[in-house]
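Quick review question:
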C-alpha cells in the first residue's frame, strides 16, 4: 500500500488536495441544500420566515461549535482523524435530516449536521496548507475552497432541472456522499507532515497553549481581529444568500424553477470566479485582487437588490454576485492559515472559521428580521452593502502582510 501511495508523492501527500476537494464539494452541497429546499419543506412543517430562520441558524450554530472544537482537536490529536470523524458526523446527520418528521427534529438534525461540517473545514484548510509549499499554500486552499460552490451547483441543478424532486432525496444524497468519502480517507489519507514532525512533548505543550489567548500574543492581536471581522462580515453576506436567495427571489415574483435557475447561476459564478480569483491572487499583487473582489461584491449585490422580476438580468446579477461573494470567502480561507505558526494553525483557522459562523448565524437572522418587519427583498439585499465595505477595510491589511513561518 505504501508503495502505491508513493505514486502520489512522498507518503501519498499528493492525495490530500484531491480528497480535500471532494470533501469541500459535499460540504458545499449541504450548505446550499437547506436554502434550496426551503420552499418545499417550509409549507410541510408550517414554517413562517421567522421560524424558517431558526432552521438555518441551527445549522450555523453547529458550524461554529464544530469549527472551534475541530480546530482545537486538530492541533493536539492530528488533522486526519478529526477530519474523518467530522465527515462521518456530517453524513449521518444529513441522512437523519431527510428522515425528520417535524420542525423540532429538523432543527436538531441541522444543528448536528453543522457540528460535523464545522469540524471538517479547519482540518481541510490546515491539511492542504501544510502539504503545500509556502508560495502555493494560499492558492491551493483557495482552489480547494472553490469546490464548495460546485457542490452547491449540483444541488441547484438537481432542483432546477427536476423541479418535482423530493426535498428529502437532496439530503439523502448529501449524507451518503460524505460517509463514502470518509471511508476512502480512512484507507488512504495521510496525516499532515507538519503535525507528524512535532514530537510528543511539543504536542502536549500545544494542548496547553493552543488557546484563544495564544492567538493574540507576539503582536498577532491586530491581525487576528481583522481576520475575524473579515470572516464575520463576509460570511454574514454569503449565508444570507445561501439560505434566503430562493425565497427572496420568489417574493420578487420569480417562479420556483426560475429562482432555482438564478441560484444555479450564483453557484456557477462561485465556482468559476473562485478559481479565477485564486489564480489572480498568486500571479499579481494580491491586494489589488482583494480590493477588486470586495468592490465587485458591493456593486453586484446592490444590482441584485435593484432588479425586479427579470430573468435574464437576474441570472446575470446572480452570476456576478456568485463570483465575488464566493471568491471573497475563499480568499479568506486562503489567508486564514497564514498568520499562525504550525503549532497554532488548526486553532487559529478554527477560531477564524468559527467567528465567521457567527456571521453566518447573523445573516439569516438579519434577513428574517427585515422580512418580518415588513421590508421587501430588495431592501434585504441592499442592506448588506455597507457590511461588505466594512469587510473590505478589515481585509486589505491582511492581503499586504507576509505569512508566518
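Suggested answer, residue by residue:
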Amino acid at each position: 500500500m505504501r508503495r502505491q501511495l508513493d505514486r502520489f508523492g512522498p507518503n501519498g501527500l499528493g492525495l490530500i488536495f484531491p480528497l480535500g476537494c471532494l470533501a469541500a464539494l459535499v460540504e458545499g452541497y449541504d450548505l446550499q441544500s437547506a436554502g434550496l429546499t426551503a420552499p418545499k419543506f417550509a409549507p410541510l412543517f408550517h414554517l413562517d420566515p421567522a421560524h424558517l430562520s431558526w432552521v438555518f441558524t441551527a445549522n450555523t450554530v453547529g458550524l461554529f461549535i464544530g469549527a472551534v472544537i475541530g480546530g482545537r482537536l486538530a492541533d493536539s490529536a492530528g488533522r486526519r482523524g478529526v477530519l474523518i470523524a467530522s465527515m462521518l458526523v456530517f453524513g449521518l446527520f444529513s441522512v437523519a435530516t431527510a428522515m425528520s418528521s417535524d420542525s423540532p427534529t429538523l432543527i436538531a438534525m441541522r444543528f448536528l449536521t453543522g457540528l460535523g461540517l464545522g469540524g471538517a473545514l479547519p482540518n481541510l484548510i490546515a491539511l492542504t496548507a501544510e502539504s503545500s509549499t509556502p508560495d502555493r499554500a494560499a492558492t491551493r486552499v483557495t482552489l480547494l475552497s472553490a469546490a464548495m460552490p460546485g457542490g452547491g451547483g449540483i444541488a441547484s441543478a438537481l432542483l432546477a432541472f427536476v423541479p418535482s424532486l423530493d426535498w428529502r432525496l437532496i439530503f439523502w444524497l448529501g449524507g451518503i456522499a460524505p460517509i463514502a468519502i470518509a471511508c476512502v480517507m480512512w484507507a488512504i489519507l495521510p496525516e499532515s507532515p507538519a503535525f507528524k514532525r512535532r514530537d510528543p512533548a511539543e504536542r502536549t505543550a500545544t494542548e496547553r497553549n493552543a488557546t484563544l489567548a495564544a492567538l493574540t500574543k507576539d503582536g498577532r492581536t491586530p491581525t487576528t481581529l481583522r481576520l475575524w471581522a473579515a470572516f464575520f462580515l463576509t460570511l454574514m453576506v454569503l449565508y444570507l444568500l445561501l439560505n434566503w436567495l430562493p425565497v427572496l427571489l420568489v417574493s420578487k415574483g420569480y417562479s420556483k424553477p426560475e429562482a432555482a435557475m438564478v441560484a444555479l447561476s450564483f453557484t456557477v459564478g462561485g465556482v468559476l470566479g473562485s478559481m479565477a480569483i485564486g489564480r489572480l491572487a498568486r500571479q499579481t499583487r494580491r491586494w489589488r485582487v482583494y480590493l477588486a473582489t470586495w468592490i465587485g461584491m458591493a456593486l453586484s449585490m446592490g444590482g441584485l437588490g435593484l432588479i425586479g422580476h427579470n430573468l435574464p438580468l437576474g441570472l446575470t446579477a446572480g452570476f456576478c454576485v456568485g463570483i465575488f461573494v464566493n471568491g471573497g470567502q475563499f480568499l479568506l480561507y486562503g489567508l486564514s492559515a497564514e498568520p499562525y505558526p504550525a503549532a497554532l494553525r488548526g486553532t487559529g483557522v478554527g477560531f477564524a472559521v468559527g467567528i465567521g459562523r457567527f456571521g453566518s448565524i447573523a445573516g439569516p437572522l438579519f434577513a428574517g428580521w427585515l422580512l418580518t418587519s415588513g421590508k421587501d427583498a430588495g431592501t434585504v439585499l441592499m442592506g448588506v452593502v455597507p457590511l461588505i465595505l466594512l469587510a473590505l477595510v478589515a481585509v486589505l491589511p491582511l492581503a499586504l502582510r507576509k505569512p508566518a513561518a
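Why it works: The longest helix spans residues 221-251. Residues 1-12 have pLDDT under 50 and may be disordered.
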